[in-house]
């Protein structure tokens, strides 16, 4: 289910994804440099966070990633994943700087496996769904500055317990609270509501940074949904989107992804592309 006005996606008990634009970005007419990729058919999920100067850099990278896996399928091992990442980064202009946190889910005879790639100050966290205990968390690489010779080291993790929850997030998420202390750990689809309560309620929303986040169950199967890319908007887009509040009734609805594919003008307004 997709809600363009709330820039949110949710699959009951399986996944929640949400994009929020920082208060200052809206006020000053900047784009939202945070971008999400949800490639359900291939089990590939990613967040990216670009600079204010070129906020669309994150979308350019994730669109290239989506095109690669659509044509060739998801990587089958760590070496293939590294080759894929090197290909998409090699086409990124040096001035188009962005972080990238990406997870590829695979199921083999020993259970669910996740291949992870991360750089910059975005993060990937794996939590025990029963206790909220942190099982794994990537370290921030504050020396990272976009494209580099070795952009994304790849790690492969056996997901134990299978009920673990994976959270991919840009740095703005940490400013509004700790997910591991909430019900999102057991119900990843609750991410959208949790973020909404902390960023949109009230007549005077709090001062926040851009936020891009995806929470999903570790054993989430491949699903025959369209691929979604959301965010990485250019300057002016966020101001236009905010002014669209008068169109909230037709946009503020939870409908199947296929429903919104028939409304490309609303998708463009919200900075969402459904492939």
Structure description:
The protein is an alpha+beta fold and 275 residues long. The protein has a single domain, classed as PPM-type phosphatase domain (Phosphatase 2c, domain 1, 4-Layer Sandwich). The chain is built from eight helices and 14 strands. The strands form two sheets. The protein has a seven-stranded antiparallel β-sheet with strand order 1-2-3-12-11-8-9, with helices on one face. A seven-stranded antiparallel β-sheet has the order 10-7-6-5-4-13-14. Strand 6 and strand 7 (111-119) form a beta hairpin. Helix 2 packs across helix 3 (78-90). The two termini are 15 Å apart. The model has no long low-confidence stretch (mean pLDDT 86).
Keywords for this structure?
single chain; 275 residues; Phosphatase 2c, domain 1
Shape: globular
Secondary-structure element series:
EEEHEEHHEEEEEEHEEHHHHE
**Structural class, from secondary structure content?**
alpha+beta
According to CATH, what is the topology?
Phosphatase 2c, domain 1
Which CATH architecture? Answer: 4-Layer Sandwich
> Count of helical segments?
8
Helix content: 10-25%
Q: Which segments are poorly predicted (pLDDT under 50) over 5 or more consecutive residues?
A: none
Task: Summarize the biggest pleated sheet.
Answer: 7 strands, antiparallel
How many DSSP-defined strands?
Answer: 14
Secondary-structure blueprint:
Elements: E1 2-3, E2 8-11, E3 15-20, H1 23-28, E4 34-39, E5 44-49, H2 57-72, H3 78-90, E6 100-108, E7 111-119, E8 123-127, E9 134-137, E10 154-158, E11 165-169, H4 191-199, E12 211-217, E13 228-231, H5 237-243, H6 248-251, H7 257-260, H8 264-269, E14 272-274
Antiparallel strand pairs: 1-2, 2-3, 3-12, 4-5, 4-13, 5-6, 6-7, 7-10, 8-9, 8-11, 11-12, 13-14
